[in-house]
Every structure is written in C-alpha cells, then in structure tokens.
C-alpha cells in the first residue's frame, strides 16, 4: 500500500516536472525577454546586429534618453488611406530598448483607415483621444470582434491577430496605442501580399483571381502603402 502510494507520488511528480519542462519555452516567448539590467538605452550609432539594440554606456545615459517627443505632433494624413501611424518603438525611442513596451500615435483624416494588419510580437491597447473609430480584430477561427469606440474608450487587440481602425466621425480622430514589445513589428496584409513581389501565380491561386485583377490590386496597394 505504502509502496503503491509513493510510486504514484513519484509518477505525479514526474508528470508535473515534464509538464513544467514543456511549458518553459512557452513562457519564454510570451513577451519580450526580461532585461538583465535597470535599463539599456539603445545606442543607435552602434552597427552591431543583436536581438534589440546594443546598450549605450550607462555612465553617459541622461534623463532625456527616457523622453520622446515624437508623438506630440500629428502625423500627416494627406495620403490615400487618410491615416498616419507615428511609432515610438525602440528604433525611434531607444530609451525603451529591452523594456518590453512601446507606444504609437494614430491620426485619422475624415474617413481615414489603418488597414488590416498584425503585430507579430505584441498585444496592442488603444485609447481614443478624439473622435470615433470603428475597430476590430479577427480571431484564428475567422470570428470578427468589431465595435465603435468613442472619445475615452479603450480597446485591446490580442497579440498577432489581424486588426484595423476606421475613422467614423465627422472630423479628424486621434488614438494612442501601447504595445507590449519594444519592437512589435507591423505587417499590413495588403502590402505584405501585393507589394512584396510574391509570384503572381501564388496570388492568383490564393485569391481565385486572374492576372489582370492581381496586377490591378498590386498597383493600387503600391500607391496606398502607408508604411513610412
Ligand atoms: C506621416 O506623417 C509624417 C510626419 O508628418 C510624414 O513624414 C510621413 O510621410 C507620413 N506618412 C504617410 C504615409 O503619409
Ligand atoms: C470560433 O470561436 C468562437 C469562440 O469560441 C465560437 O463562438 C465560434 O462558434 C467559433 N467559430 C467557428 C467558425 O468555429
């Protein structure tokens, strides 16, 4: 009896250990890696390629390294999509290097759209500063979760899922986004598909369209490429 009991305890312990081992890699990819120091202000002049930016000498780091004024002014929305996303990612704001966080400012002209896109490395939460936005994301089983946001509303786009924001008010709109990666990555699906020189046979088959239709989409997407 006692031997049976301790054998099952050993089995359960082993099973828990194996489960823990299996979960380890999932924990590691759940967000940006934890920093190994208080801060690592990116040294934008260092050409060494690492996962992130090389740290500036901490002795030379000043308070202003943790400040970014690039979101103070609206982006120019005078483009075919009527939108402009100003990023405060590690490349623009080296102070956030290794800290697993970033921001962006979304400006919309009347009717402006940030087209369907994904951030492979971050969940995004947006706060509507001005105007009304029709926003949504699509889950991996093609369910659409969409709603209209008004000034003061917050909405979250789960990591990696396709999402969009459309200005549905009478004037301009502005939102601020926070993302849980220093470098969320942005893939605008229309651009990724039709402005990346994918062989047209692949696109024709994927979309069930002829060569002419694909070429037409390619030319319009190129003209509307909102990537700065
Ligand atoms: C977004 O705004 C910035 C700043 O005004 C401008 O330099 C950039 O060209 C704009 N991007 C687009 C796609 O219009
Ligand atoms: C997708 O998932 C949602 C939430 O679990 C569920 O309500 C819906 O029926 C699913 N749709 C499909 C097409 O499986």
Automatic annotation (TrEMBL):
Q: Which UniProt keywords apply?
A: Apoplast, Manganese, Metal-binding, Secreted, Signal
Question: Superkingdom, according to UniProt?
Answer: Eukaryota
Signal sequence interval, chain numbering: 1-33
Protein localization: Secreted, Extracellular space, Apoplast
Q: Please give the chief subcellular localization of this protein.
A: secreted
Q: Which family does it belong to?
A: Belongs to the germin family.
Designated name of the protein: Germin-like protein
Residues covered by the Cupin type-1 domain: 69-215
Q: Which InterPro entries match?
A: Cupin_1, Germin, Germin_Mn-BS, RmlC-like_jellyroll, RmlC_Cupin_sf
């Amino acid at each position: 009896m006692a031997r049976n009991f301790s054998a099952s305890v050993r089995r359960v312990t082993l099973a828990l250990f194996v489960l823990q081992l299996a979960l380890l890699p999932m924990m590691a990819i759940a967000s940006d890696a934890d920093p190994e120091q208080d801060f690592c202000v990116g040294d934008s002049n260092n050409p060494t390629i690492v996962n992130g930016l090389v740290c500036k000498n901490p002795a030379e780091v000043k308070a202003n390294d943790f400040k970014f004024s690039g979101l103070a002014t609206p982006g120019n929305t005078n483009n075919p999509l009527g939108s402009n996303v100003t990023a405060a990612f590690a490349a623009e704001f080296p102070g956030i290097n290794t800290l697993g966080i970033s921001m962006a400012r979304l400006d919309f002209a009347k009717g402006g759209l940030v087209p369907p896109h994904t951030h492979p490395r971050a969940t995004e939460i947006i706060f509507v500063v001005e105007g009304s936005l029709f926003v949504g994301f699509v889950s991996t089983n093609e369910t659409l979760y969409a709603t209209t946001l008004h000034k003061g509303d917050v909405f979250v786009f789960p990591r990696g899922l396709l999402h969009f924001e459309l200005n549905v008010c009478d004037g301009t709109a502005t939102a601020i986004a926070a993302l849980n990666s220093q470098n969320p990555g942005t893939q605008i699906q229309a651009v990724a598909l039709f402005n990346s020189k994918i062989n047209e046979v692949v696109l024709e088959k994927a979309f069930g369209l002829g060569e002419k239709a694909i070429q037409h989409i390619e030319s319009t997407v190129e003209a509307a490429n909102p990537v700065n």
